Amino acid sequence: MAVRKKRLADYGLQSERTLMRAKGPSVFERELGADELEERLALTTVEKAVAWAQGYSIWPDTFGLACCAIEMMSIVSSRYDVARFGAEVFRSSPRQADLLIVSGRVSHKMTAPLRQIYDQMLEPKWVIAMGACASSGGMFNNYAILQGVDKIVPVDIHVPGCPPRPEALLEGIVRLQEKIHAGVPPAYEIRGVAE
Ligand code: SF4
User: Taking the complete model, does pTM exceed 0.85, yes or no?
Assistant: First the structure.
């Protein structure tokens, strides 16, 4: 059974060109190939286009805390090449970053600066808790270490491991991109702002 080609009018585009088939193509359309024009166009929503752009232009903050930070640094190397996913632009100012990778154990002394950096980032912003220490305190079950960074900032992605390999962090970034593209709101919207 022949499948009828969809025209732009079928998608709701009510222009003179699409409604008056007999009017004929414009010069531009003739150059482009009028018969194929509608097949070459891709329609989407502004929200989806913005989410696509946001997902593939994540700028992480330059912020390392402990051993995990060494693994984090290596994702920009040629071996792992996070540039393939559009997230290689580590920024030194939180105002230019939209991803905070908490890479390592967070001492109680460090909680206030970490929260301040998070607050200085503009929305939308995301947080990855990298490694066992950032996610839960890890092996440091003592009075000096915060038992999970989600106590002070809303976390979007937890990356397990001690330390997680660079591939694991890349996987976390890709999962975050999938969430952004799917329209899942950042953690601070879902959970409210952490106290
Ligand atoms: S998870 Fe392991 S590698 Fe990462 S900061 Fe803790 S002890 Fe270091």
Answer: no
